[in-house]
Amino acid sequence: MRRTLAQWAPVRVALESMRRFTRDDADTHAAALAYQLFLSILALSIGGLAILGLVARVVDIEVPEGSEEQWENLTQGGVGLGLAALAGLLWTTSAFGRRASHAFATIFRTGPVSMLRGRLRGLAVALGVIILIGAVPVITGVLATLRSLGILDTPIRVLGLAATVALELGLFLAAYVALTPQGGPRWQAHVPGALLMTVGWQVFKLVGGLVLSYLLERSTLLYGTIGVVVTTLVLMRSATWLFLFGAELSAVLDGRDRDRGVPA
Asked: In angstroms, rounded to a whole number, what is the distance separating the alpha carbons of residues 54 and 58?
């Protein structure tokens, strides 16, 4: 039974991908990517607070009782805080791109990649992420408007979910393609990894949402905050692991295609 299962094509591909993952020491790259991703999100969050502080200068925003002093500091230091967050975001995203390109160079056997090119790739991917993130609220707003008008309520929900998943698939595929150094496979070869990452991302969002909701509802402020941070780090670590495993999967399938005489 075990031998029959190991001979099944999907299992053989998964096992070969795992062997390559271990041989390429991709887990170390995944840990470094998670670290850079955490710093990027931290810088992005600080930038969001800075923007909120600038908006508060022209729009009255009600703040919780007891936080007036912190809010005043935020509104007064919005410009400097925003510039520092922007510099940090550019640095961390470029470092993320360099590390990812280095990992993909190992996975796809393309050779080393220069530091400058890797950082530029990271900035390009970050820009794509910003564009896609900006498109999501627009699509969500249009769908919410149609639902409020009572137009095709159930189909609109399905359409909204499908549009979100399609955007995420496009984002992951673009990230794989953009971060792979020259000499790597064509974009079609990255589709399996992008599909795997998209499915895994839906699972991460579901599990993360359930865990975070539980922590926020049933924990104190201190332990709830600690739990949220730890959960976020675990999800980031799992996501970067799956991101690189998806690249290994694409590399295995691309190699199998070349063995069969199909262009990569």
From this structure: 8
